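User: Sequence in, structure out. Go.
Assistant: Echoing your sequence, followed by the C-alpha cells.
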Amino acid sequence: MKPSFFLHSVIFALGVALVFPAFAEDASGIVYHDKNGNGVRDQGEPGLPGVAVSNQREVVQTDAEGRWSLPVTDDTILFVVKPSGWKTPVNEFQLPQFYYIHKPKGSPENFRYPGVDPTGPLPESIEFALSPVEEPAQFKAIFFGDPQPSTIEQVNYIADDVIAELIGTDAKFGVTLGDIMFDHLELFEPSNANVALVGIPWYNVIGNHDLNFEATDDADSDETFHRHFGPNYYSFDYGPVHFINLDDVEWGRRNAEGKLTYVGGLDERQLAFVKNDLALVPEEKLVVLMMHIPLTTVENRTELYRLIEKRPYTLSISGHTHWQAHQFIDEADGWQGDGPHHHIVNVTVCGTWWKGEKDERGIPHATMRDGAPNGYSIMSFDGTSHILDFKAAREPTDYQFHIHAPNEIAVEDAEKTLVHVNVFNGSKDSTVRMRVGEDGEWIVLDKVLEPDPYYVETRDREMAARPEATNHLNPPILSDHLWKGFLPAGIPAGSHPIQVEATDAYGRLWKDEKVIRVGKPR
C-alpha cells in the first residue's frame, strides 16, 4: 500500500485559529514468519495474518498476507504486539526488537544524554519478524523493582546481589518496573549487559529516574529511553496472558518553587491505545498491567479503571515506593468492577537506594523502609491465575519473614514482651501465629500498621556507630505486612525456641524459629 499524504490544516475564521493536527503520511509493512531467525525477510517467508500492530494509539490487525498500514507523524514508534506462540528477535542485551522508530530528524540535540539518531525518510515497507516458539499455559516471569544505580559500583552491586543467582533461571522473561537508573543514563549500557546474562528476553518500564530532565515536556523526556528500549508503552502476549507495559510518569509539571517535576498520570493517547489494544483481547484472558508509579497514586486512574474493570481477570504491578504491598482496589477508590482489583507494589532491587552498612561482600544491606529485605519477585502464571514469590537477595527461597524479639528477657517480663513478625509477602488475608517451645499454645498475632522495630533499631544503631556516614537508611514508614503479639506468661528460665507460622498473600504456609533466653527472676 502506498503512503497517503495529508496537510496540516490551519483555518482562521472569525479571528479564531483552529488547528487540526493530522498525520503526515501512512506507514505500511508486513509481519512475517522468520523461518531462519535472521531478522530479515527472505524469499519464501510468508506474512502472518491477524497480528496486531500499533502506532501507540491505533491498533490494526494484519490482513491475509500479513500486511498492515497505520498513520504516522515525524515522531512515531510503531510496534508489533507479539502474539502467543511467537517470539520477536532480541539484541545483544536480550532486549526484544519488536518496534520501528520513525523520527526523521532524530531527538532534540540539547540533552545531556543522547536520544534517537535521525531515522531518515519513512521506509517503503516496515517488516516485523516473528518466529514460532512453544509458550505453555504455566510459566514464570521475573519482576525487578527499581534497580536504580547511580554509579558503576552500584551496577556491580546489582550483578552480585541478584543477577548472578538468576543465571540459568527457568523464567521465560523478565521485566524491570522502572527506575532502571538513578538519573545517570550513561549507565544503561553496562546495566543492560549485566541483565542480559540472565539469558531471557527482558522488558523495561520507564521510571521517573529514567528521564531526560532537560526536557520541558513529557514527550521529549523519554528520548534516551527510546534509544535504548524502544516504545515507552506497548503490549505483548505470552501464553494465555496479555501484558500491557504503561508509562505512568508524566513529566513537565511545575512544583511550588517553579521547578519541573512529575506526577503519576496517563495521557489521552496512551489511554486510547489501551482501549484499542484491549478491543482485540478476548475477555477470558488475564490482563497484566505493568507500570512504575503505583496505580493508586495515578491522578487519572479511574479512566484506566473504566477500561479494565468489566474484565473478569486483571492484575497490575508497579515499583517506585521502595516498599512491598498487596493492594486491593475497590469502590472506595472509584473501582466499579465486581470484585477488588489486585495491585502489587513490588520489592525493589536497590532496597533503600543502596543504603545501609555493607556486608562481607561489600554490598549495602539496603533493607527497605518497611523492614523487608531488598530483592525481586518471581511470578508464576497458570492460565488466569498467578502466584507471586518474594525473593530476598542472596537469601534462601524460604526466607519469607523476619522475627524480631529480644535475645534475653527476665522471667517476669515475658507477658510484657512483644514479638514482631514481618511477613514480606503478607497481605490483609495472611495469618501469623507463634508459640514458645514444642508444646506451647499457639498465639495468633495481630496485623498492625506500624514501623518495623527491626528496621528502626538497625537504622538507629548504624547512625550511632557512624554519624558522619552519608549512606544512612531513610526514615521508616508504616509497614503494610507487620504482625505483633505478647509472649505468654510463665515461661520457665532457660533457652526456648519461638516458633512462628505465617501464611503469605497466597495462603502458603512458611515456618521459622528464633531462640530466646529467659533469665531467672530478679
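User: And one key feature?
Assistant: Residues 1-21 have pLDDT under 50 and may be disordered.
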